[in-house]
Structures are given as C-alpha cells and as structure tokens.
Specification:
Layout lengths: L5 E7 L4 E4 L3 E5 L6 E5 L5 E4 L2 E7 L10
Length: 67
C-alpha cells in the first residue's frame, strides 16, 4: 500500500491570496455556501465563502534499505 502525503491550502478569491493549511481554522461544507475561517498574517481571523481548495501532493519519503 502506498501512502500519500499532501498539503492543504486555500485560494481566497476575494483578496487573490494563497492561504497555507496551518492558518486554516475550519472549513464548513454544511448548509448553504461552503465557507472558511483562517488566520491572516497579522493574527486576525478572516472569513471567506469565495475560495478554492488546493491539494499539493508531496513526494513519497525515501525507503531505507539496509544489508
């Protein structure tokens, strides 16, 4: 079985900025339009309902081979 690692980011279309996954507080896919709360560079909580989710797949980790 191959395990894939990935980084989750969002693109806030309102301000045309890429938000790193560590800043994302929550993503709500409940009733109505999906929304995101995230922390901006100044430490304030921001809200957007105009965003794209970006998934960046990371390369697999090297396997140690010993004799």
């Amino acid at each position: 079985m191959i395990k894939m690692k990935f980084k989750l980011k969002i693109h806030d279309k309102n301000i045309d900025k890429l938000i790193d996954g560590e800043a994302i507080q929550s993503i709500d896919f409940g009733r109505g339009k999906p929304s995101v709360f995230y922390t901006d560079d100044e430490g304030y909580t921001q809200f957007t309902d105009n965003f794209e989710i970006i998934i960046e797949f990371l390369p697999p980790e090297p396997i140690k081979v010993s004799k």
